[in-house]
Design brief:
Blueprint lengths: L9 E5 L3 H7 L4 H22 L3 E8 L7 H24 L3 E5 L7 H13 L7 E8 L1 H17 L10 H6 L15 E4 L18 E4 L9 H12 L13
Parallel strand pairs: 1-2, 1-5, 2-4, 3-4, 5-6
Helix pairs in contact: 1-2, 2-3, 3-4
The structure holds farnesyl diphosphate (FPP).
Length: 244
């Protein structure tokens, strides 16, 4: 990577194309997710070394439950494998792991692994790695509104108009996960160009970057070049000047 590249503080990634990668290689879909997990690990390491402060990945959406039982349980088994095998390295890298989404409903072993991961890394001060698990943006926004209304009813919050700032605080990216800044850059692999219910509120001003590479084929090199290209963009936030 060139020197003096403007590094995004927060990068979010829609890791798409594991299934197509598996079909292309004539292996089961779960093997595609396994290859995707390896790619994810390389990107986490690369982002941390680059000085990215927050990396968020879309690992499992509220819609992914519609997939076959084997595929769903395969993805959660991989999550456990990832934690058992790679948690120590993440911890050594000083990475702090957090979860966006209601993961209380994922299979027990995966939930326990996540709890262990969050606990082990909670005092780390390096990059924050957010795993979106059972995450959906619309459900997240509704949950925030319902929580605010409830707290207003209970008298914990004043009965005032709901502002952007207040709503943001009650999203998964808000207070409960350390007030994560909005993503500067959202990447999606595999040639699809849509957000699929990912960070819709937070991504209002994000730069978007797409690549035809299938997620398991996405390399740190391609990641770096996307970050470099991001550095050349002029972000105006609806105004004329780059916001400082
Ligand atoms: C999208 O590919 C990928 C997913 C829905 C799962 C992402 C999971 C991983 C990268 C590995 C597991 C890691 C964790 C932390 C759980 P797709 O299956 O939609 O691909 P397709 O569109 O080609 O079918």
């Amino acid at each position: 990577m060139e020197k003096d590249v403007k590094i995004p503080r927060h990068i979010a990634i829609i890791m798409d194309g594991n299934g197509r990668w598996a079909a292309k290689h004539h292996v089961p879909r779960v093997s595609g997710h396994n290859a995707g997990m390896e790619a994810m690990k390389d990107i986490v390491r690369a982002a941390s070394h680059m000085g990215v402060e927050y990396l968020t990945v879309y690992a499992f959406s509220t819609e992914n439950w519609k997939r076959s039982k084997e595929e769903v349980s395969g993805i959660f088994k991989l999550l456990v494998k990832f934690v058992l095998r790679d948690l120590e390295e993440l911890h050594q890298e000083n990475v702090r792991v957090r979860v966006l989404g209601d993961y209380s409903v994922i299979p027990d072993s995966a939930r326990k692994s996540m709890d262990e991961t969050l606990k082990k890394t909670e005092n780390n001060t390096g990059m924050q790695f957010n795993i979106a698990l059972n995450y959906g943006s619309r459900a997240e926004i509704l949950r925030a509104i319902n929580r605010i209304v409830q707290l207003q009813r209970e008298g914990v919050l004043p009965q005032e108009e709901i502002t952007e700032e207040l709503l943001s605080r009650y999203l998964y990216t808000g207070e409960e996960n350390g007030n994560i800044p909005d993503p500067d850059l959202i990447i999606r692999t595999s040639g699809e160009e849509r957000l699929s219910n990912f960070l819709l509120w937070q991504g209002a001003y994000s730069e978007l970057s797409f690549t035809d590479s299938l997620w398991p084929d996405f390399t740190p090199k391609e990641f770096s070049s996307m970050v470099e290209e991001y550095g050349t963009r002029d972000r105006r936030y609806g105004g004329r000047q780059e916001k400082k």
